[in-house]
Amino acid sequence: MLKNKFTTQQSKTAQKGVTLLEMMITLAILAIVLTVVAPNMQRFLIKNRITAEINEVSGIIQYARHLAIDEQTNVVVCPSVDFLECGTNWSKPKIVFIDSNADGNRAAGEDLLVTTSEASDSTIITGPNSSIQFLDTGAADKAFSIQICPLSKDATFARAISVSLQGRVRVSTDSDDDGTHEDSDGTALSCD
Q1: 22-171: CATH superfamily
Q2: Which DSSP helix (H) or strand (E) runs through 39?
């Protein structure tokens, strides 16, 4: 009786692990799932990255406009490599400052109010070739558009921000449901 108990106990604890067949089936299922999920996951990550960047850029532009109205002064938004001088590469960090002398550049004594991070290495941001100024009325010194595209240049991921002369900010939409967003004129965005 004692021997049977010991043998039963031993057989229960002796089986650990999986068979080669069970492991091969598991790997086959995993390979199939990854083949189906991986491309969709990549699209999901690209879309989320671009959405985050469009929200960040839109937020800083809207902040600058509201600050110009609240403080009744000129406020500038521009890309900057060193947080001192304005540049033209919108993939670089963006800065906001009150432009006391209304020259469109950050001078000594003009405090840096807000900054953003540099754009992701997987996106390209294009915008105007100069700084953006908001006047004390909230109007922009010029109408402009900023566009964000993935490195793959797939226009289905492209997003844009348009700012009118009145300073109103508008994010692109896919109004005709063809999978590509359009700018404020209704023209499909292109990443060429």
Answers
A1: minor pseudopilin epsh domain (3.55.40.10)
A2: helix 20-71
* Residues in contact with 178: Cβ distance below 8 Å, sequence separation at least 6, in sequence order: 188
pLDDT in tens, 32-76: 888 887 777 888 888 999 999 999 999 999 999 999 999 999 999
Please count the helices (runs of H) and the strands (runs of E) in the chain: 2, 8
The rounded distance, in Å, linking the Cα atoms of 177 and 157 is 13
End-to-end CA distance of the chain: 82
Asked if 91 and 124 touch (Cβ cutoff 8 Å), the reply is yes
Is pTM beyond 0.85 here? no
Task: Work out whether strand 123-126 and strand 94-98 pair parallel, antiparallel, or are unpaired.
Answer: unpaired
What gap in Å lies between CA 47 and CA 147, rounded to an integer? 14
Q: Is 182 helix (H, G, I), strand (E, B) or coil?
A: strand
- 150 three-class SS: strand
Split at pLDDT 50, 70, 90, the class of 19 is: confident
